[in-house]
Every structure is written in structure tokens, then in C-alpha cells.
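User: Here's a protein and a ligand (flavin-adenine dinucleotide). What would the complex look like?
Assistant: Let me lay out the input and then the predicted complex.
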Amino acid sequence: MASLFLLILALFTFQFQIGVLISSQTIPNQDDSYIKFIQNANTLPTTEKYDYIIIGGGTAGCPLAATLSSNFSVLVLERGSDPNAFPMVLSQEGMANTLTDDDNGHNPFQRFISEDGVENIRGRVLGGGSMINVGFYSRAQPEFFKNSSVQWDMAMVEEAYRWIEETVVSRPELGPWQLAFKEALVEAGVGPDNGYDLNHVVGTRIGGSIFDSRGKRHGAVELLNKANPINLKVATQATVKRIIFSQSNGLSATGVLYSDSNGKLHKATISKNGEIILSAGAIGSPQLLLSSGVGPKSHLSSLKLPLVLHNRHVGQSMADNPRFGATVVLPFLTRPTSVQVVGTLKPNIHIESLSTILPFSISPPFALLPPRSSGVNLSLAIFAGKFSTVSSTGSLRLDRRKNPIVRFNYLSHPDDLERCVEGVRKVGELVNTKVMERIKTRDLEGKMGFEFLGRSLPENMSDYGLVGEFCRKTVTTFWHYHGGCLVGKVVDGNYKVIGINNLRVVDGSTFSLSPGTNPMAAVMMLGRYVGLKMLHQRLGQRSKPFGN
Ligand SMILES: Cc1cc2nc3c(=O)[nH]c(=O)nc-3n(C[C@H](O)[C@H](O)[C@H](O)COP(=O)(O)OP(=O)(O)OC[C@H]3O[C@@H](n4cnc5c(N)ncnc54)[C@H](O)[C@@H]3O)c2cc1C
């Protein structure tokens, strides 16, 4: 599994090198003026008071902080560092190199392996997952809004998306591989061809990217540039240990305890009518609720953690979207391309692809090869599938280590296996289109076929058992894990923690299904949306977000 993960990262490295040349810039240059808000937690007082404290300066936390700062004082507590400390994460070329580093406790990412044995990563840097991800941007599907137990104001959703897109999203221009892939999708019946569309639609389309034409990343951190400068403070290397509660006026969150990089504890509290918002991600938010005493009574007592509120749903319904597909060695060298095109089938099964070059170096004394042969380049085409609704769920629990224990139970539900089988069959149809004839190779007997890297696609796609077996044997992560603090179970329709005053959760942990082909757009939108709602609820008509 480790080598497969490294291979995928290597593939992304090469994809990014050329991606720079092929996307058109539609947004201004990278803007790091957010630096003025950042202070290392070491330099902060040991006690402070704010209107709002946001735990986690990630994909949802940054837009939320910028929005609330328009009228109120906001403290963001982020355990990671300023992304400028890791220039590699700021560009397409460098990102994957950074990801292949060992986890030394200070990298912009943290590795974890689920109990399923699948390697995974989470963001540990200001900007969160949006600073280490692949950058594909696509809005959520209608079912996400319909099935989320939230009364969405769709005009405000649209406003929130636009606020994000004007700052961080570019339209890519397709390279030869993406053009061929798009043609193959349409030929395989994944129609209609919708052209460029950030919305989730059935058929084939080109999506957005947070990498601009020069390969510069525009992560959630740049949304902080929209904040009201007099109201925002962002503390980096500030790891929140637990939330502080009071029983004096009903159970209420009143502050947080966080440690700086020297291990010194700081206390931050909220003023009257203030709130604490957990935006620590699908692993971090349930983890922090549990370590603060909110969760299943039996689990907390087994760890001798004092119970604040019993809620059996905290840390439950954890899901990760399995990635399925195949990798084909191409019979010619082709320019690497990033993911720019998506094919969406009716039941929310999505197929993306990228082409890449995998170089192998040859050691000089290797006598079989001509003298001075230095290396061989392999061109690869990767077909990667995902389905948005995952029926197989697992859970998260604490064991006092840095990372909690997570199990996703990939493909354990028969519906998921069915979705995977359907997706793999579609990949089979795709590779058998006329367009893809070009990537077949002829063997010595003249037979045409594909040169698969790793496991071949099943020969007999009508054999459900065979295709299901392929799914189980090749399952890995699409990095879109979610759940742990679901709406209706842990938070209400306003993202307030059920049974506790002044505490919300706003991030991917509240999702019961993955938003569309890729979740980042919906996570950013959620941060802005909940921020706007909070301002409107608190200020009514007086609410005029700063800079808008
Ligand atoms: C490798 C990879 C590739 C991906 N590719 C794509 C893609 O191309 N397109 C797409 O749409 N999505 C992609 N995703 C998914 C997407 O990036 C995530 O779903 C999204 O970023 C999650 O946002 P979040 O706000 O829920 O959490 P995060 O962005 O992870 O934010 C949580 C923040 O909280 C901080 N934190 C956690 N605990 C604490 C604590 N105790 N104290 C202080 N701070 C804390 C973390 O350091 C982090 O910065 C990818 C993800 C990965 C990992």
C-alpha cells in the first residue's frame, strides 16, 4: 500500500510540472498579504478574549474567519505553520515532493493509516487540506443540499461560491490527454458534453482549478485577505487541547486551552454572545469534541476522560470515498496533464483521468543496455473513479496518540460494491472506445491490448464476482473522508452542537455524503455561508460584510 501511495504521489509530481503550461490564468497573482494577520502562538498572551474563536485555520476555517471579522474580533488557532514556511506547497511543481517527505511532526501534512490498512493524509498548515490537495474545484451536487438536514438559502449559497471563486479559482485549458479522455467519455455515453462548468452536472465537463496558469496555488489561506484587518488574529503552531465549558447558564462553551510550540498552555475565552467554532476537519473536529468530554459515555469513561455531554454520534458515521480504476502504460511519450475533466454518471459515480510520465533511472554498469543509457521514461494514463454517496461507514475513537484511530470499512456495504462495480465497468467501456485504441499495444502474435501498471482491469466485466473482487483488491482513498459530527446527530441545521451553547462545528466532519466530484468547493462555501448566516442572525440588516 505504501509503494502504491508513493507511486501516485510521484505521478502527481510530474502532472504538476506541465500543468503550469496548460491552464489559463483568470485570477490575480498569488497574494500573501494574509501574513499580516499571523502571529506565532509563542508570542501571544496566556489569556485573551475574543468575540469568536475558530479552531483550525483550514479550508472552512479561513473563509469563516474572514467573514466574521467584518464586524467582530476573531482569533484563529491553527496547529500548523504559515504555508510560506513550505514554498513547495505553494506551487504545483513542489507539492508532491513535499508530500513524499517523512512526517517529522512539522510538515504541512500529517500521515495516518486507517484500521483498514489504507494510508492517508490530513492538512497541518494554515489553509488546511486546500494547501496540500490536487486543486480540482467543482461545486456540490443537488443531493448534497437536499439530503443535508439544513434549510439552505440557495441565493446565499450562490453568493458564497462566487465570493470564493473570484479569489481562488481558474479555468484550465485542456492538453492532448485531457482532450482524448473527454472524447472517450462522450463516446462511452457519459453525455452530454457540458463544456466548462463549475456546477455538478451529469455528463462530461471541464472543472475549475485552484492552480493558476503559472502553477501557483490559491488555497483557502488567500480568503483571509478579505478579512477586516483590525479584527483578525491568526495564531499558528497553536494546538487546541480542549474546549472549556461552564454549567452556570446551561451547558456552554466559554473558551479553549491551547499549547504553543514550547508546550506552554494558553487560554482564550469568548465575550458575551461570542462563540467557539470547530473547523478542525473530519478527523480533528470529532477528535477534539471527544477529548473535551463530548461523545459516547462508555468510550470516554474507558479513557477516564471526564464526561461533559453524552452524545453517542460523535466520531460515528466516518466515511471515505474509495478510489477505483486502472493505470495504463502508454505506447508513446505524452505530455503530463492534471485532472481537468470529469465524467459523471447518473447515480453520482465520477471518473477522472490524468496522464503522467514516470522516469526510471538506469545504473551505468548495466551491461545489457547500450552504453551511456541514463534512463527510461514511461508515459502513463490513470483512470480514477469515485462515488459521492458512501454507504459503508466506520468510526473514530481516541487512544491518546497524536492521531485518533479511524476505520472506514471501505466497500463493506453491498451498495458500495455495486457502485464500484458499475464504475469499473464504465472504466472498461472507456478504455475500449475508438479514441483509446491509440493507447493499445500489439504483442508478438499481433494481438492488441493494454499494458496495465498494477492490476489489470477484469477481462470479463459481466462477471459481478470478478469485478467486485477487483474493487476489493485495489481499493484506496480519494482523500475525501468526511463525517464524525453529522448534521442532525452532533450539530443542528445551524451547525450548532446539540445540547451545548456557543459551540458550532463547520467543516467536512458535518457531511453525510461527499459533495460532488470533489469536496473543497463545498467546504469553502460552507465556511463563508455559515459566517454570513451568523452575521445576519446577530446583526440583522446591519450586517454588511467588510469589503463587500
Ligand atoms: C491529497 C489530497 C488531495 C485532495 N484533492 C482534492 C481536490 O483536488 N479537490 C477537492 O475538492 N478536494 C480535494 N481533497 C479534499 C479536500 O482538500 C478536503 O476535503 C478539505 O480540504 C477538508 O477541509 P476541512 O476544512 O474540513 O479540513 P482541513 O482543511 O483539513 O482543515 C482543518 C484544519 O484544522 C487544523 N487542526 C486540526 N486539529 C487542530 C487542533 N487541535 N488545533 C488547532 N488546529 C487544528 C488542521 O491543521 C487544519 O489546518 C484532497 C485532499 C487531500 C488530502
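Summary: The first strand starts at residue 38 and ends at 40.
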